Amino acid sequence: SLLSMVAITALATDSKTETSVARRGDYLISSATFRPLAERGSANAQYNLGLTYYEGRSVSKNYSQALAWFRKAAMQGDMVAQFNLGVMYEYNQGAPKNYAKASKWYQKAAAQDYVNAENNLGAMFRDGLGVRKNYNQAIAWYERAVAQGDAKAQYNLGVMYEKGWGVQQNYASAFALFRKSAAQGDAGGEFNLGVMYDRGLGVRQDYTQASVWYQKAATQDYAWAQSNLGLLYVSGHGVPKNYTQAMVWFRKASQQGDAVAQDSLGVGYYNGQGVPQDIIAAFALIKLAELKDRSYSSQLSTIRSAMTSTQIEAGLALALKMKRDGVLEALAENER
Asked: In angstroms, what CA-CA distances link 228 with 115, 186, 194, 223?
């Protein structure tokens, strides 16, 4: 009998933050130009010298030196340098990871209305990183960033409304914020807008619109969107039913480690839908999914019961190869 694919249409709720240091103006000039000015105390030159060390332009890349020069500029009130210090402390660049120090520098930059810092600080309060978890504070900082049109903050504030974190749950408000974020090309906003249309949250259910927004996010390599778009091609909701096209998207998301896609691609191989029937590939893919989510155990048991011990051994070996070398490379070798 055929296995069924498990549809997952949960919204993405991870915080969207800036994860790399900010650049401005004349940062392409060499370190030799900035060093004399930086040593004489110019905050702008100190920031730029820090950036040359961060990126390894005209000097060897050195995060410790970047941190030191950003700190000198930050101590003089340079808001971009303050933000960059926050990023480096949050992401263990040039100094051990330290959320408390990251939040401290984000707060200094955010107090000067630096939008990236406002959004990142909101995420720190939302998730309790370096500060006590406080949804009201998170919302306040997200709102300041949203007022400046920041797409990540629009996404983040939309999540707060969709979940009812610190505000009364309001799907219409969440939808409006995701739409603003998506209109700026933010993949998370595009995906969540697709989910809202898919499930009819804050808007009339519309599978065609769901497919449009999943497609936009999927072309940005957003794995959940690739999975959900594949599921629409399986069901024929909003797009013509097309198992071959579904498997194309499941393969892309599987390569990124998405369990839903790995399970769905495995089901495709088991049923012979959109790909040649291959019980060993099916077992390997669903085993990968089951390692992340035990809810796939029953499907794995169903497949196992139809396999010989030799096939099971081959399936486990293929799953290990997928985990080590990537799904696509392992499948290509298996199909040769």
From this structure: 32, 17, 9, 9
How many Å apart are CA 261 and CA 297, to the nearest integer? Answer: 15
Print pLDDT tens along the chain (336 aa).
566 666 555 666 676 677 676 776 555 556 677 889 999 999 999 999 999 899 888 889 999 999 999 999 999 999 999 999 999 999 999 999 999 999 999 999 999 999 999 999 999 999 999 999 999 999 999 999 999 999 999 999 999 999 999 999 999 999 999 999 999 999 999 999 999 999 999 999 999 999 999 999 999 999 999 999 999 999 999 999 999 999 999 999 999 999 999 999 999 999 999 999 999 999 999 999 999 999 999 999 999 999 999 999 999 999 999 999 999 999 999 888
Q: Which of 201, 245, 193 has its CA nearest to residue 224?
A: 193
The Cα 128–Cα 124 span in angstroms is 6
Alpha helices in 170-242 (DSSP H): 171-183, 187-199, 207-218, 223-235
- Residue 247, CA distances (Å) to 159, 229, 250 in order: 29, 10, 5
> What's the pTM?
0.89
Q: Which residues of 60-70 are buried (b: 16+ CB within 10 A; e: fewer)?
A: eebbebbbbbb
In terms of phi and psi (left: phi > 0; alpha: psi -120 to 50; beta: otherwise), the region of 238 is left
Contact indicator for 113, 141 with CB cutoff of 8 Å: no
